[in-house]
Amino acid sequence: MKKTTEAVSHEQLDYSTANTLLARLNKGLAKREELRDLTGLTDRKLRILIHDLQSAGHLIINMSDGRGYKLAQSKEELERYKSQEWSRVIESIHKLDAMEWGKDEQVRIDV
User: What tens digit of pLDDT does each residue of 96-107 get?
Assistant: First the structure.
């Protein structure tokens, strides 16, 4: 997948920013607004950083309940997060499957 011009790869990041973020998340829940202020990153770059850190094995979780991000503190927290993410994957597969079946039909949307 081609990255956009705003995309930041893990290699391009200032590791002190990543360490600052991880140290804050280790203290407990933090909303994205706080993390943006802390790191000085845009919302998109912050989400990319979080994704990159997760991909590197850091146990950053967000339960999509509006409470924010944190480092998982237990196996149970991590399992709940993984279950949430697998549900999203399955939902996306169902959506893409439905789109595949409907691609040959003409679709017209009146607005």
Answer: 998 887 766 656
